[in-house]
């Protein structure tokens, strides 16, 4: 057995630009990590700093024991020396080169079996027969594969994908996502995946870093982040639509300010700021005998393709409260179609208590 | 009819365009890399486009005249720029330079920046990126800029008459010949030169449009 290769990316950087402050620190250990955040939160800038295209004001970037950037030691490697792979949504293929030339130009100089390497990649990415085509003659899927092949043939020590699918329509997106997942599995090194799409992130990544206004709010495994987000930004980004300001009442009771409801919880921290629940976790009840069950007026029904979204507000409140959104299936909807109000159960274990 | 103005003009324009071609592309590449001084450098390089050519000619006269440092240096080797054939070339080159520089710079700036970033992370040197990616993908704009510069160089009048004068058979270009013909009351001759110049300019513009259309076909999917 050979020596275990250390696959660690450590990033700790600060950068100010356009009245915006990026100040982040994180580490990955050979896994696929998502940088999840709304647009303009510093995700892409982070990738550019790691790639050496942008220079951080201060800090340190280390990749597999190599210092890529260190402001104190005045180290700032050129992008050419960093061994990082970048994939953009536009794929950025070289339009003046054929498919084969696009891959060939990325083969490291010191290889003497260049042709073999290229042929192998063309084969592996099912691009055979298209070698002499120019990028504009290729389909979107083929372009993506060329971009991936070009990136991998360069033998990068980290892959960085910047919203690779955001310009695609849904069915194509699904297929290309599957391709990327299988490629990332075989690559097995550090991967950073920038996205604002929660579903995509959940399917592709093992770890998630939640970006908000230039800071990382939370880093955790995808299961933790998606089941138990601990911050407002993380909850919103993972798709939580029902979030209210909260005040602690007692050790296991919280007051949802925007809804005017008292909710029983398992354990309330002193610094709780918000309470939330995913639309999928709300349950319709027959009556309000059960704990944490309240009557809600149905204000509106939004029809989706395979479900309905109910827009609700708590009954017996003489002031306007925040609305609650709940998703019900076709069959569930049959039972409540003609009702003016329903009982909703907020399961204790599904309540998200957010402290930021 | 004496055709020497046509030959003098063509010679000056062709050589001036070659000079502009090299310096224009280089200047465009150089300024796209600048950060803070970009505005100032761009202003200096573009100024020949907005200054009256006579003012430009005056500057050149001061710079290259026999009392200037350059003029003195050259005259010690028996080289005299002012009122020489070289003056027609220099005047045309200076006046047409901004057109080349601007067109190419525009093309460089329109290149997908992500493409350049990716090229860098793939380990391609800046030199290689310039030669293998920036130049080929700006080909049609470079050709369009070259033709534009050529057409401008061919029609140069103001700076030429200041620096090169109006010596028939030596520095009298077509544009100057039109002026001389009108001055001398020779309308027929003036019409002939005008017709030739309009013809050449028109053909140049048609060729240039062909190159610009090529661009549309070559560019693939862009975006950020």
Q: Would you kindly provide a written description of the structure presented here, covering whatever features stand out?
A:
The complex is a heterodimer of chains A (356) and B (224). Chain A is of the alpha+beta class. Helices cover 24% and strands 34% of the residues of chain A. The longest helix of chain A is centred in the middle third of the chain and has 18 residues, at 170-187. The radius of gyration of chain A is 25 Å and the shape is elongated. Chain B has 224 residues and is mainly alpha-helical. In chain B, helix 1 packs across helix 10 (174-183), helix 2 (38-50) packs across helix 5 and helix 5 (85-110) packs antiparallel against helix 8. Chain B has a single domain (4-218), classed as MetI-like fold. The interface between A and B is medium-sized, with 36 and 24 residues. Chain A: This is ATP-binding cassette domain-containing protein. Chain A: Residues 3-238 form the ABC transporter domain. Chain A: InterPro entries: AAA+_ATPase (IPR003593), ABC_SmlMolc_Importer (IPR050093), ABC_transporter-like_ATP-bd (IPR003439), ABC_transporter-like_CS (IPR017871), P-loop_NTPase (IPR027417).
Helix and strand topology:
The complex is a heterodimer of chains A (356) and B (224).
Chain A: E1 9-17, E2 20-28, E3 32-36, H1 43-51, E4 58-63, E5 66-70, E6 75-76, E7 84-88, H2 99-104, H3 114-124, H4 140-153, E8 158-162, H5 170-187, E9 190-195, H6 198-204, E10 207-212, E11 215-221, H7 222-227, H8 232-237, E12 242-250, E13 253-256, E14 261-264, E15 274-277, E16 283-285, E17 293-303, E18 307-314, E19 324-329, H9 330-336, E20 341-345, E21 352-354
Parallel strand pairs in A: 3-9, 3-10, 7-8, 8-9
Antiparallel strand pairs in A: 1-2, 1-4, 4-5, 5-6, 10-11, 12-13, 12-15, 13-14, 15-21, 16-20, 17-18, 17-20, 18-19
Chain B: H1 4-33, H2 38-50, H3 53-64, H4 69-75, H5 85-110, H6 113-121, H7 126-137, H8 139-154, H9 158-163, H10 174-183, H11 187-218
Helix pairs in contact in B: 1-2, 1-5, 1-8, 1-10, 2-5, 5-8, 8-11, 10-11
GO molecular function, one term (chain A): ATP binding
Domain ABC transporter (chain A): 3-238
Protein name (chain A): ATP-binding cassette domain-containing protein
């Amino acid at each position: 057995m050979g020596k275990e290769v250390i696959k660690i990316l450590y990033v700790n950087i600060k950068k100010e630009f356009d009245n915006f402050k990026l100040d982040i620190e994180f580490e990955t250990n050979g896994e696929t990590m998502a940088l999840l955040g709304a647009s303009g939160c510093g995700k892409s800038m982070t990738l550019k700093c790691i790639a050496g295209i942008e220079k951080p004001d201060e800090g340190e970037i280390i990749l597999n024991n190599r210092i890529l950037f260190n402001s104190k030691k005045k180290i700032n490697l050129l992008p050419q020396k960093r061994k990082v792979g970048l994939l953009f949504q536009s794929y950025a293929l070289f339009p003046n080169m054929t498919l084969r030339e696009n891959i060939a130009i990325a083969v490291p100089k010191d290889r003497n079996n260049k042709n073999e390497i290229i042929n192998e990649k063309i084969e592996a990415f099912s691009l055979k027969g298209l070698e002499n085509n120019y990028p504009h003659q290729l389909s979107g899927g083929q372009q993506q594969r060329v971009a991936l092949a070009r990136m991998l043939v360069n033998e990068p020590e980290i892959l960085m994908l910047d919203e690779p699918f955001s310009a695609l329509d849904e069915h194509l997106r699904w297929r290309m996502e599957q391709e990327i997942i299988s490629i990332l599995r075989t690559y097995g090194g550090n991967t950073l995946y920038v996205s604002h799409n929660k579903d995509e992130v959940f399917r592709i990544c093992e770890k998630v870093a939640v970006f908000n206004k230039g800071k990382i709010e939370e880093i955790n495994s995808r299961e933790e982040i998606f089941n138990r987000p601990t911050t407002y930004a993380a909850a919103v980004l993972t798709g939580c639509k029902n979030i209210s300001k909260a005040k602690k009442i007692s050790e296991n009771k919280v007051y949802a300010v925007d809804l005017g409801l008292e909710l029983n919880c398992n354990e309330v921290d002193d610094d709780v700021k918000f309470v939330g629940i995913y639309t999928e976790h709300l349950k319709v009840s027959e009556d309000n005998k059960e704990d944490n069950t309240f009557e809600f007026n149905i204000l509106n029904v939004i029809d989706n393709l395979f479900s309905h979204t109910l827009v609700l507000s708590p009954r017996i409140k003489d002031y306007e409260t925040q609305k609650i959104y709940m998703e019900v299936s076709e069959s569930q909807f049959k039972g409540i179609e003609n009702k003016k109000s329903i009982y909703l159960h907020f399961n204790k274990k599904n309540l998200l208590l957010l402290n930021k | 009819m004496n055709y020497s103005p046509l030959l003098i003009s063509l010679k000056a324009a062709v050589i001036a365009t070659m000079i502009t071609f090299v310096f224009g592309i280089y200047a465009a590449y150089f300024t796209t890399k600048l950060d803070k001084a970009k505005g100032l450098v761009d202003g200096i390089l573009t100024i020949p486009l907005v200054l009256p050519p006579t003012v430009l000619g005056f500057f050149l006269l001061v710079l290259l005249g026999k009392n200037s440092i350059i003029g003195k240096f050259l005259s010690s080797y028996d080289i005299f720029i002012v009122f020489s054939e070289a003056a027609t070339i220099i005047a045309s080159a200076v006046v047409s330079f901004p057109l080349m520089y601007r067109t190419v710079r525009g093309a460089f700036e329109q290149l997908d920046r992500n493409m350049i970033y990716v090229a860098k992370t793939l380990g391609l040197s800046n030199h290689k990126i310039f030669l293998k990616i920036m130049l080929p993908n700006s080909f049609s704009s470079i050709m369009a800029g070259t033709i534009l510069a050529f057409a401008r160089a061919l029609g140069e009048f103001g700076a030429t008459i200041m620096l090169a004068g109006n010596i028939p058979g030596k520095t009298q270009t077509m544009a100057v010949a039109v002026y001389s013909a009108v001055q001398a009351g020779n309308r027929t001759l003036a019409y002939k030169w005008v017709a030739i110049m309009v013809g050449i300019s028109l053909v140049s513009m048609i060729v240039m449009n062909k190159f610009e259309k090529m661009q549309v076909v070559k560019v693939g999917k862009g975006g950020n």
